[in-house]
Design a protein that fits this description.
Elements lengths: L2 E4 L3 H12 L3 E5 L3 H11 L2 E2 L3 H7 L2 E4 L4 H14 L5 E4 L5 H13 L3 E4 L2 E2 L1 H7 L2 E6 L2 H14 E8 L3 H29 L4 H9 L6 H11 L9 H15 L8 H15 L11 H4 L2
Parallel strand pairs: 1-2, 1-4, 2-3, 4-5, 5-6, 8-9
Antiparallel strand pairs: 7-8
The structure holds NADP nicotinamide-adenine-dinucleotide phosphate.
Length: about 280
């Protein structure tokens, strides 16, 4: 499948390189052109001059942009150029409502749409080991499978359109809790002046071990917060989760509310473009 990628940031850029390795990358586009030119230099793949041109030149399109309104802006531009039967795969994290709106626009222009948010971090994107949560028609997923297999290791059909994003919301709530637990625990250990290399080695192998501590533990202890996953993006995701929870009868999402408030404090201090592990800043005295 001739595949195009729109949005070549931390995640989309790595996906494009993996699609190139798989022989599938056909066109790229990024709002900031210099970034698209970097990927073009690395791969030799042509940069389209607009989103609608890219849409007219590809059989499959991966989108990886920041927020709900960005996805809808890109979707409307795709709709101007899309060929019948083109598969549009949105890997951004947005609300289920946005996924349904995007699907309506694409399907009414004779294309196909799957919401395919991902988890596994920037490392997962780089190593093509992402876990992909798919919403949409299962038969269409089979068409998209070669493209998804080039960027991820686990591909799970969750249910109809929007359910991939609903699954991702569950993931983001859990990530908020893990971030709270790991930053608090490691700041506690550092406060006791323990040898934190030894602490990490010991506890990673036991019941408290987890991906986030393995990948961000050392850097947060060293006071460096290079993204990774930008704090302002997780804040955006958690606001979506709170919005979804507000329509339900369940107990609410207290840990998520607390994390949103903490992130807002950090964003106010100018740390929104740092990794989510910058939460560590609030845990230290
Ligand atoms: P990023 O590095 O900040 O990249 C964002 C990309 O979106 C850039 O290419 C940016 O273009 C583009 N963009 C933003 N608004 C746009 C618009 N209105 N029109 C066109 N392009 C636009 O972010 P990222 O970490 O790759 O995250 C991308 C998505 O994946 C987000 O929804 C995020 O929540 C999700 N995600 C991230 C991770 C992670 O660990 N980083 C993991 C899973 C999912 P410019 O270059 O011009 O700014």
């Amino acid at each position: 499948m001739k595949t195009g990628v729109i949005g070549l940031g931390v995640m989309g850029g790595a996906m494009a390189l993996n699609l190139h390795k798989a022989g599938l990358l056909h066109r790229i586009w990024n709002r900031t052109v210099s970034r698209a030119n970097e990927i073009c230099e690395q791969t030799g793949v042509a940069v389209s001059d607009s989103i609608s041109t890219l849409a007219s030149e590809c059989d499959a399109i991966i989108i990886c942009v920041s927020k709900d309104e960005d996805v809808l802006e890109v979707i409307n531009a795709i709709a101007e150029g899309i060929k019948p039967g083109t598969m549009v795969i949105d890997t951004s994290t947005v609300s289920s409502k946005t996924a349904k709106q995007a699907a309506d626009i694409i399907i009414s222009n004779d294309g196909e749409f799957l919401d395919c948010p991902v988890t596994g971090g920037s490392e997962g994107a780089k190593n093509a080991t992402l876990s992909i949560m798919v919403g949409g028609d299962e038969a269409k997923l089979n068409t998209a499978r070669p493209v998804l297999s080039a960027i991820g290791k686990k591909i799970i059909h969750i249910g109809p359109t929007g359910s991939g994003q609903a699954c991702k919301a569950v993931n983001q709530v859990i990530c908020a809790g893990i971030n709270q637990a790991v930053t608090e625990g490691l700041a506690f250990g550092q406060g006791m002046e323990l040898d934190m290399d030894r602490v990490l080695e010991a506890i990673s192998a036991g019941a408290a071990g987890n991906w986030f501590m393995d990948h961000r533990g050392k850097t947060m202890l060293a006071g460096t917060f290079e993204p990774g996953f930008k704090l302002k993006l997780h804040h955006k995701d958690l606001k979506i989760c709170l919005d979804m929870a507000s329509t339900m009868d369940e107990a609410g999402l207290p840990l998520t509310s607390m994390t949103v408030a903490d992130y807002e404090e950090l964003i106010g201090q100018g740390h929104g473009d740092e990794d989510i592990s910058a939460l560590f800043r609030l845990k230290k005295n």
